[in-house]
Amino acid sequence: MSDRPIRILHLGLGRFHRAHQAVYMERMAHLGDASWGISAFSMRSPDARDHMRAVELRYPVVETENAAKPDTPAKDAPEVDPGYNTIWIESIREVGFAIDDRELLLARIRDAGVKIITLTITEKGYNLTPTGDLNLENPEVKNDLADPLHPKTAVGILGLLFRERALHGRRPLSVVSCDNLRENGRKLEKTVRTYLSRLSGDDWDKALDFVADDVSFPSSMVDRIVPELSEQTKAAIEAASGTSHPELLATEEFTQWVIEDRFVGGRPSWDRVFVDFVRDIRPFEEMKLRLLNATHSMLAYLGTLRGHSFVHEAISDPFIEELARKMMFEEVSPLLEKFHRKDRLAEYCERLIARFRNEKLPHRLLQIAADGSEKIQQRILPSLVVAGEGPHSALVMALASWILFLHKRMTGGFEIADPRATKLKGLMTTDLSAFAEKVLKEPEWMASLSNNEKLRKETLAALGAIQS
Question: Beta strand pairing status for 215-216 and 59-64?
């Protein structure tokens, strides 16, 4: 559909964007509104750009239901499994690699039709300190500040985009973060302002003024599981869905998007495709981060330690399921009752467990385990901070599982996928307790809990319990 004008610029051309935001835009097109095409740029490598161009920007997303296939199908049942639904995506109208295709990126931001920038760059892509500030000591951030016309970080690229927009017609922009950070819009705005304030020159002053006067940063919460597929899993999904394609993505039927309704310059009618626009994003963020994401991380670390490879295997382990239920129902949900009714929280938790059991969508635990030093700050520690004297042994077990996971990976000679891998390796010692002591005392990821003697003792005890 070449008639779809580009009005959204996206940073982060990964699986999640292509199976979440792009699907919402496709569903809008099916309802008759095809006026919000996407220009999407990969951030880390040109591979996603090249793969998308090879299929002429058209690909299928297969949605799976977690329902058992009947043992005896009906006589006239179709060959395609009814538990699989395929939607073809054409809402991404242009792709690029932010580093190599800089002129295309700058040309797009100068386009008066572009009204929204969205981001899916993962937690580590924001280069934040535990307090939510821009990490000015990060080498990549330092490089961008030294050469701001050729940035490589997300904040540097946004700074350059705002400069370009300010110099070529100050038309309003809304910038929507779609990553797992609390109040991600406000943190992104603070990060951008900090970055621009460190740059000297009239052009950068204009960019900073533009951000202050003509840019909004609505926070948003997104939820959908889009795992990386092995060749074997991809082949099975292609056979069951009747759809074969080199860029096929598989996801769950469930999808959610909640956004603060504070846009400037216009927005799509996303409410027509069940996006929730709210005044306060916090209740939705807290529920998702501290229930879904926290439990996901616990499953990843403890599940791997117990010999499992996928989420559906981990949640089927009676020991892990009991611990997950304890964490969700007894420890975290009571902390969220100021935001949500008790019965709604219980319903949400049961639905999470059902989603985790989806065998049609094998989700590798090692994929979830990546970037733990970032994720525990958003998922586990906030509940531990406010748990106080209330029950929190499962949360402590989740923290201990991360530490033991790191120790076993490093003593086993495996690389750890973490933005702080170098620092974690520097803390390494073959003595697990000594390693745990160092990790627990590190303020770079433990923040206010780094001097918590009670938590230290509880975590060391939990490590012993896991090993036994």
Answer: unpaired
Radius of gyration of the chain from its Cα atoms, rounded to whole angstroms: 23
| Residue among 363, 315, 358 at smallest CA distance from 67 | 358
Q: Which residues of 107-130 are buried (b: 16+ CB within 10 A; e: fewer)?
A: ebbebeebbbbbbbbbbbbbbbbb
As a whole number of angstroms, the distance between CA 458 and CA 415 comes to: 28
pLDDT for 27-48, tens place per residue? 999 999 999 999 999 999 999 9
User: How many CA atoms does the CB half-sphere of 147 hold within 13 Å?
Assistant: 7
**AA identity, residue 82:** P
| Side-chain half-sphere exposure of 2, counting CA atoms within 13 A | 1
Q: Which residues contact 193 (CB under 8 A, 6 or more apart)?
A: 208, 211, 212
Cα 370 from Cα 288, distance rounded (Å): 18
Mean pLDDT is lowest, of 59-73, 79-93, 274-288, 388-402, for 59-73
- The string of pLDDT tens digits covering residues 137-178 is 999 999 999 999 999 999 999 999 999 999 998 899 999 999
For 411, the enclosing helix (H) or strand (E) is helix 393-411
Cα–Cα distance measured from residue 51 to residue 207, given in angstroms and rounded to the nearest whole number: 34
Give the span between the Cα atoms of 90 and 86, in whole angstroms.
13
Buried b (16+ CB within 10 A) or exposed e, 347-375: ebbeebeebbbbebbbbbbbebbbbbbbb
Average pLDDT, integer, range 361-367: 96
- Paired tokens of 422: 């170098």
pLDDT tens digits for range 52-80: 999 999 999 999 986 544 333 334 444 55
Does 284 have pLDDT greater than 50? Answer: yes
Smallest CA-to-CA distance from 68 within 87, 85, 49, 83 is with 83
Angle between helix axes 202-214 and 184-197 (nearest 10 degrees) is 160
SS3 438: helix
Distance of alpha carbon 446 from alpha carbon 163, whole angstroms = 35
395: phi then psi, degrees, rounded to nearest 5: -65, -40
Report pTM. 0.92
